[in-house]
Amino acid sequence: MTTLTELDVRDHPSAPFGSWAIGDDVLIRLHEPHITYEGRHPITAWRDVPLTGERTIPDPSRRPQIRVTPLDMLDLSGVIGLAEDRAYDNTLIGLLPKDYRPQVPRTLIAPSDSGRLLYVEATPEGQLLLRVPGRSRVRASVLSLDGPTCRLDAPHGQ
């Protein structure tokens, strides 16, 4: 898998900085040692994740958000505060709107301040469930959603 290490956004007279809007098509060119790609893709919007229970937003500049990319991938970002500084296994922490739900359950890595990797499971029913591997709970006050991504479609054969 190729990792994108640098992205150049170029100012152009026909599409100057600041003129883009959600839904606009932009030209994407990717040239890496093992892949060359060129295509047009729409600019997608981030949407706030509706939190459940006693979850909080500890940093308003890093609100929990989601978006669906043109390649039918679900991206997550932001930070969620956990009640009582505890992460409990199988806790409902958020809800996915209908168009943001995977066709099959997806498990995403979600780092926390506990020093342990926790997981978030995105379900076809629209639930975001906190998963604590090997235990019923751990001490943690925040859960990061920065970086996780998953496919929304089902893999072949499912």
UniProtKB/TrEMBL annotation:
It comes from Streptomyces luteolus. This is Uncharacterized protein.
